[in-house]
Specification:
192 residues, mainly beta, globular
Length: 192
């Protein structure tokens, strides 16, 4: 799908109707590649491609729901690769997230917010390819606790893991840092 506001939209208003599986999907030049709203328990996406999107995965279920999985996928974004709220027990494994070379805004690979907990980000890479003077945060935990980040490659990232607005208990196991900008830090706002 090309040049759309949203490539794939799930807006579920019925409790219990869940378990969506996406595989080998493509989205080019959209505001949002995957948009999830309502009751969305059990979403899994593997081997998906999103290129030239503002946001790759965007989830606003409105209440705490378990499981959003993204694996072996590539998101080439302007603002955020993954931007989720209220998701628990999510799994993000082996993804390649690029802040686009023509991005002119600051970005974040993973923004995990508002009560999202027990999520795992394992492996993969977060890269700032922007040629403009932008900053990139690898993982931003915003009012989100008890998550794990492990073995992710961070390239040209200004802050690796950021904990804000009461985020606690997040575990970070250092992966590989390459092409580190001057002044870059592994943690922002009290991370550990």
């Amino acid at each position: 799908l090309t040049n759309m506001s949203v490539c794939y939209n799930v807006n579920n208003t019925v409790f219990g109707l869940t378990n969506y599986l996406f595989s080998n999907l493509r989205c080019n030049a959209a505001k949002t590649a995957f948009n999830f709203n309502g009751y969305i328990e059990g979403i899994f996406c593997s081997h998906c491609l999103a290129v030239a999107v503002n946001v790759g995965f965007y989830a606003r279920p409105g209440q705490a729901v378990p499981y959003l999985g993204l694996s072996q996928s590539h998101i080439d974004f302007f603002n955020a690769g993954v931007d989720i709220q209220y998701i628990s027990q999510g799994s993000f494994v082996g993804n390649l997230l690029y802040h686009r070379s023509d991005a002119t805004t600051n970005g974040v690979c993973y923004n995990i917010a508002l009560g999202a907990g027990q999520n795992q980000i394992i492996g993969g890479e977060c890269l700032n390819a922007s040629t403009a003077p932008t900053t990139l945060v690898g993982v931003n935990f915003d009012n989100s606790s008890n998550n794990t980040v492990a073995d992710m490659v961070l390239s040209k990232v200004d802050t690796g893991v950021k904990n804000v607005n009461g985020s606690t208990g997040n575990i970070y196991r250092r992966g590989q840092w390459i092409n580190i900008p001057a002044g870059a830090g592994e943690f922002g706002n009290g991370g550990s």
